[in-house]
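Let us begin with a simple case.
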Amino acid sequence: MPLKNADGSFNFICEIPKETKAKMEVATDEKLTPIKQDTKKGKLRDYPYNINWNYGMLPQTWEDPQHVHPTMNVKGDNDPVDVVEIGSTQLEMGSVTPVKPLGVYAMIDEGELDWKVICISTSDPKASDINDVADVEKHMPGELEKIRVWFRDYKTPDGKPQNMFGLDDKCMPSAYAKDVIEETHEFYNSLKSGKRANDEELSLE
């Protein structure tokens, strides 16, 4: 699956459709990387409440667990880059949707950097009006803060601490998000080519 399309959009793979709570994810350690429900201690995992946006990942990206971010001094979480798609349509699990990046949060989950790229489907009715963080605030006021709070708090019902955010808790602009995508795409290519040895087994088919 290519990361980018000829028109400049990026391919978003939906793992969790909006308004559902089963914690589905691409199994990067299995052949053909199927989408499966995550488990913990042998039990299927759910979020404590519905996620209000389509959630998934960008193919051919990888958050390198040996790369230390120069500003936040944290390492990548060994996963593809996560996407929060804020369009109005509930997307199907496993669907591939062209999106444009609008911004990115630097979530820090248990000491690991876990980028959350905010995107919108290029076919969404609001897509032509929303191109950056300021446009989200204008046309969907409060939406970015709702996303931050949801990801900050979703583990607390299980007794875990809130997730933290780097970069002063800010949703960084579209240009920054695209830089993150390009950097993690380079990490992916280095790993796949064998130039970068990984500590853990990771399928990149």
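The second case is a distinct protein. As before, the sequence precedes its structure tokens.
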Amino acid sequence: MSPFIYAGLTEEKQISFLLGTHFIEPNDIITGIAELMGINYSDIHGNSRKDEFVMARQICIGLIALNFPHLTLKEIGGMFNNRHHATILYSIDEYKHSYTHERKFRNMVLLFKNQSNHHYITNPN
């Protein structure tokens, strides 16, 4: 393989490329959940309190927070229309609670993981 393929990739991503695996990015989670739930990407970022948008938003925020622990609450909030860090913290708590206690919510997360081959996504348990 040409060494030019690896230009700009971190060593970790070069190894991932060679092994045939890939790393998920926060934006991949948002896009995947939007597609899975049949809603627009912009609906997840919006301010609507419609149940399906709130659920999608909480799934995205929860998955991003659990899988990217190096991101601050403020950085995650920046991905969601500059939401306040307290709102992000609340969404993470709701994600954990809903994943544990609500079958529909948990099934949506598991469906996303299975359909998108992101089996390495962290569960809150």
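Helices lie at 11-19, 26-37, 41-45, 51-67, 73-79, 85-101, 103-115. The two ends are 41 Å apart (CA to CA).
Keep these points in mind for the review questions at the end of the chapter.
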